[in-house]
Structures are given as structure tokens and as C-alpha cells.
Amino acid sequence: MKTFLPILFFAFLFIGCKKEPSEDDTYGYETECEYCDINYINDVGVNVYVYGHKGSWKKEFPRSIFSEMRITVTAKQSTSKNVSAHITKNGGRLVSQSGYSSVTARHTVIRSGTSKPVLDICGAPTQKGGPCQRIVSGGGRCWQHQ
Asked: Is residue 125 part of a domain?
């Protein structure tokens, strides 16, 4: 029994403890495309659009004050529609999405003590070429783009 207690204590320390996101974590976005539009949520929760981007793109935030991260990349050129979107944390890729024509990568930064419902925009490509701006609860697509 005496040898069992230290093993149980160390197992609890290593298995039961999870590292919470810290204020020192750096989050960001990366994309690759030949010619595309980029839509992302910045560090204060505002939608930002980058129109007509070519090649690789990267944006980092010194610290995260948001809980929901989302980036949508939509190809603009008919010759090459392969696009990719990545969400990064401390320089490493956390979430990656690649596809044809349009992709969206999402990540929720979990903070202790937050219990707000997650509201997001649909972000699906519309007939006019921009992302759908309908509000959806819990992420995902709106009723029309499901």
C-alpha cells in the first residue's frame, strides 16, 4: 500500500492536470492560395477582409482576447482553386483545412470561467463571391448553406 500511494499521486499530477491557455500564447492565421479573398476574425472579434491576395499570407496576434477564431479563404481565379487555411498557436499549426474553391478553419480558445454561447457567422461563399454574414449559434453553417 505504501508504494501504491506515490504512484497514484504522480499519476494524478501528470494525467489530471491540463495546461490552460495562457496570456503569453500567440495565436494567428496562415493561408496559401494563388489568388483569393481572406476573411478572418481579429484579436478583438471584428471580421476583417483581405481582397485579392496572392500567395502565402500570415497574421499573428501578440495575445488572444477572443474565444472564437475563424478564417475563410475563397479562390478568385478559375485556373487554380486549391486553397488552405491554418490557425496557429505559438508558431505551430493548430487547425488546418485545405480544399477546392473555399475552406474555413475554426478553433475555440477555451478560457476558464467563460460560459458564453459561441456565436459565429456562416462564412459560406455566396453567389456574389463574398462570405455569408448570417449569424449562427455554435459554429457551422446557416440554414441555407447546410
From this structure: no
- Residue 52 located in a structural domain: yes
Domain containing residue 100? 20-115
Q: Which whole-number Å values give the CA distances from 29 to 54, 141, 146, in the listed order?
A: 15, 21, 25
Give dist(CA 5, CA 8) in Å, integer: 5
Q: Is residue 132 part of a domain?
A: no
Q: pLDDT tens digits, the chain, 146 residues: what are they?
A: 555 545 544 444 444 444 454 567 888 999 999 899 999 988 878 889 999 999 999 999 876 566 788 999 998 876 667 899 999 988 898 889 988 888 999 988 876 554 455 567 788 888 888 888 887 776 678 888 87
Number of domains observed in the structure of the chain: 1
